[in-house]
Amino acid sequence: MPARFSRLIPEVSEPDWKPSASPELLAKRAKFLRAIREFFYTRDVMEVDTPVLTHAAVTDPHIESLQTQINSGGKSEQFYLNTSPEFYMKRLLAAGSGSIYQLGKVFRNDEQGKLHSPEFTMLEWYRVGFDHHALMSEVDQLMQFLLHTETADRMRFLDVFEQFAQVNPFTATVSQLQACAKLNGIDLSSPDMEKDDWLALILTHLIEPQLGQDRPVFIYDFPASQAALARLHQQDTYITAERFELYYRGIELANGYHELSDSTEQRKRFEQDIQKRSDAGKPIYACDETVLAALAAGLPDCAGVAAGVDRLFMLSEKLEHIQQGQSFISGS
Amino acid sequence: MASYSTNEFKNGLKLMIDGDPYSIVECDFVKPGKGQAFTRVKIRNLKSGRVVERTYKSGDSVEAADVMDTEMQYLYNDGEMWHFMDPNSYEQIAADATAIGDSKQWLKEQDMVEVTLWNGSPIAVVPPNFVVLAVTDTDPGVRGDTSGGGGKPATLETGAVVRVPLFIDIGELVKVDTRSGEYVGRAKD
């Protein structure tokens, strides 16, 4: 080409088409997923794959759904991408599926960081006849199977806060939690928070980085105000939620419940969520009537847990960033 | 006044915090599976250079700082202030010793430098990564020794003192890395 023309052609860099993980790492990921399926196959837990699209966005005040439209019959219908397969899976349980698991993509808006990705692979499973303690034991077995960990520790939410932050999370006032954060060098620029937000701040900034350095640790018996979809019970002088979370090497890996099956109580919690969203000026969604109807029809006594597969894989391969173990960064 | 939401945070973003301009050095998203999300940042105070950690509730907004990095030419020092010129507009500005900080030992007249302006006033000056300066004082050069082993202190025309190889003589030009303050090599005119 004559030189005088070449400068008229704008310099276009070649699009970066390459995956973010190497073929070797992706082969390990495939093996990892296969191991998960094997674990449940030997335990006779059935694999299911429920839809990603749903009519009802999650009402959780701190989780944002992505939305999309589907055109059919000349009408445009509003849909949301699942932030968790929970409600579809509970409908299967109410219909008599027995114990089930699912490996699939879930989507969350406004979440991006070393440990967060707007879409990620979630492993969610439900065990009929289990309570949260029995399910913690099974999660521990999965950890030992996948990551060759030692037997996990179990600590109550109360004990964790008393040990790492020298504060009682049940009786502490907002100003005491504020003082605790300040004492531990957490400099927060948004002082107008409610108690659960202060607890979340202390948990994520002070406690979490120290948790499970040698072996995984379960935190259980959460405050009733953080019950989400777990049952409540009276423990000593406090009402606690039969909920647990799993941490390993300072990373939160799983969240589980002895599942609430009372549809009236569940509706009340959805309504509280919606009120909180409204107070915070966030978009408001109607609650999922289908899952309430399923609970009313009868959810078997069960415990369920959701685990972040990308984070488990990060720990397995000692990766620094969640995206390093994913084939592509969404949209790249 | 313009402001940024925490989900617009990224490295290099300039914010106004407690009346001072800051630049984001590191940024991470922290959120429990159930519960309030936070954005944790490491920020550098553009006036003092100090780096501190801060946490914001995700979704909060922070005022933007009117901070601009501009390429300017260093003109001269009048004993109190350092004077710079915008090569496009020929507009001149003067910076005080606080804004100049440690950069003053690398400032050679006519050199292009990066001046950080906050509301139009200079608050920081970054010299080029490499500068060529004349040696004004050092022990006599050792002839034939080109190994550079050992070394000796040399005072440069701007007042900076750097370690140079033994063969360097007064009047010679040397190239220095201003980030580390280390001698890189001999330079020609």
* Percent in helix of chain A: 25-40%
**Total number of distinct structural domains of chain A:** 1
How far the N terminus sits from the C terminus of chain A, by CA atoms, comes to 33 Å
| Oligomeric state as shown | heterodimer
Strand residues, percent of chain B: over 45%
Number of helices of chain B: 1
Order of helical and strand elements of chain A: HHEEEEHEEHEHHHEEEEHHEH
Outline the low-pLDDT stretches of chain B: none
CATH superfamily of chain A: Bira Bifunctional Protein, Domain 2
Discrete helix count of chain A: 10
Topology (elements, then pairings):
The complex is a heterodimer of chains A (332) and B (189).
Chain A (H helix, E strand, L loop, with lengths): L2 H4 L16 H20 L3 E2 L5 E2 L12 E6 L2 E7 L4 H9 L5 E8 L11 E10 L3 H16 L5 E4 H9 L8 H10 L11 H13 L9 E7 L8 E4 L2 E11 L2 E8 L4 H17 L9 H10 L3 E7 H9 L15
Parallel strand pairs in A: 1-5, 7-8
Antiparallel strand pairs in A: 2-4, 3-4, 5-6, 6-12, 8-10, 9-10, 10-11, 11-12
Helix pairs in contact in A: 3-9, 5-7, 6-7, 8-9
Chain B lengths: L2 E3 L8 E4 L2 E11 L7 E8 L5 E7 L3 E3 L3 E11 L4 E4 L6 E4 L1 H4 L11 E7 L2 E6 L3 E9 L13 E5 L4 E4 L8 E5 L4 E6 L2
How does this structure look, described?
The complex is a heterodimer of chains A (332) and B (189). In chain A, strands 1, 5, 6, 7, 8, 9, 10, 11 and 12 form a 9-stranded mixed sheet that branches. Chain A has a 3-stranded antiparallel sheet with strand order 2-4-3, with no helix packed on it. Chain A is globular. Chain A is 35% helix and 23% strand. Chain A contains 10 helices and 12 strands. In chain A, helix 5 crosses helix 7 (195-207). The two termini of chain A are 33 Å apart. In chain A, 39% of the residues are buried. Chain A is of the alpha+beta class. Chain B is an all-beta fold. Chain B is built from 1 helix and 16 strands. In chain B, a hairpin with a 7-residue loop joins strand 3 and strand 4. The longest helix of chain B has 4 residues, at 97-100. The mean pLDDT of chain B is 91. The A-B interface holds A 60, 62, 110-116, 185-190, 193, 196-197, 199-201, 203-205, 208, 226, 228, 245, 252, 255, 306 and B 7, 17, 28-38, 40, 52-60, 62.
